[in-house]
What we know:
Order of helices and strands: HHHHHHHHHHHHHH
Distance between the termini: 49 Å
Structural class: mainly alpha
Number of strands: 0
Amino acid sequence: MNAQVEEGADNPIERLVAARELADQGQYDAALQELTWFHEHALEQDPSLAGVRRSYALADWAVLAEAYPPAEAALEAVRERSTALLLAGQGNRDHLLDVVSIDHARDQPVRTRDLFLQLETVAPALAASCIRVVLPQVIAAGDAELAERLMPNPEENIRQHADYLMDAFRERRKRFTAAPSIPAEIHNYVQDVNAILDVLAARGRHADVNRLRQLAADAIPATTLRREVRAALVPGAPAWYERGVPRRRNA
Length: 251
């Protein structure tokens, strides 16, 4: 089956799916054309695709770049255009989000960290407004000193993550979503909390690590969820997908 989208087609999701199918078939140049179109034009058709554009689409592009050097060059060119605008003081939050997302897709957090340090000089207001977006990349880069500076109130950071987990929990229950999604949300929460704790540990703040690990569990009001979070926060605890699925009791 030829996955090439007919000329003139402008359904963003169809074109993103086609890009993946083309790449699987070894039609790398055609796949690159579809990914480029999606990155540049998808939001014109459907603004709600902003998250998809910066996550799944860029992840597919990064995978293609590993097999097809022109795709790597094209993705780097996209990054450089946004970076140039940012460093010239002409960029905005969207440009920075694009760069951060590209760096994340390519597992290059140090580049985000370095750009952020430059932006603190040339565009301090923009840099300050995007700390929450940049912080995970700074942590991934292993720069505990900068991460600590960008995180003056780690307790508040943890409470924000806890609120997000509870919101996700309520949504999952409301929609009767399959159970594995809840353990996945817990896993993400524990990863976020542990990233904060690792920064504090690297800075020698061990008392804060112990206090905030306890807070991360206590901040979850739902009893069952809190119990699962507390177990997952124990140092060395296996991830949810390594524990197996508990058996149901007989009625």
